[in-house]
Amino acid sequence: MAYQDNLIRIIKDSNYWPSFERPDFLIELNVLADDALSKNTIEGYLAALLIYHQICEEMVRLLLDDAHFFIQLSVFPSEITFPKKNKAMFGQVLDELKSTVSFDGKDDFVKKCDEINALRIEIVHKLTRQSTLESIKLQLEKIQILFNEIYQLFDVAHDTWRVAFKDLRKDIDWDEYLTEK
Q1: Model pTM?
Q2: 110, 97 in Cβ contact below 8 A?
């Protein structure tokens, strides 16, 4: 029963719970996006847009990993696996998050991610139709605000998942299910 033993090893060590691969780099990118936006140039606006959007995608992926891990723990000792969709686009990953278990702030988080994605599409695909650089700046300022709201919702949700994992780790005697002792 390699599946069960692996899941038990993961729940018993919080270092293996779902998390960002490189959280320090994401923080660095966030600062870079804020700095790029403040330059008031088209390059800065587009760089900020790309970075905010990509960090949002990483947050969506992590909350999806949290939900999948919670489902695996909830149905244990039954097995359920979720394929990794590393090549899935933002909208596809967000749709998958929409269809998983609920969590506090999920509806707001998804709505704001949909909004930031729609704004990105509007800016990128209609860049040559923009009337002024100022109009792009206004849209990016709105995206920055949305990004900060998304981050706050993400932070609360991810912390809530980690508390749920901690409670599950504490409340169940996982060792009794180990097959490889």
Answers
A1: 0.93
A2: yes
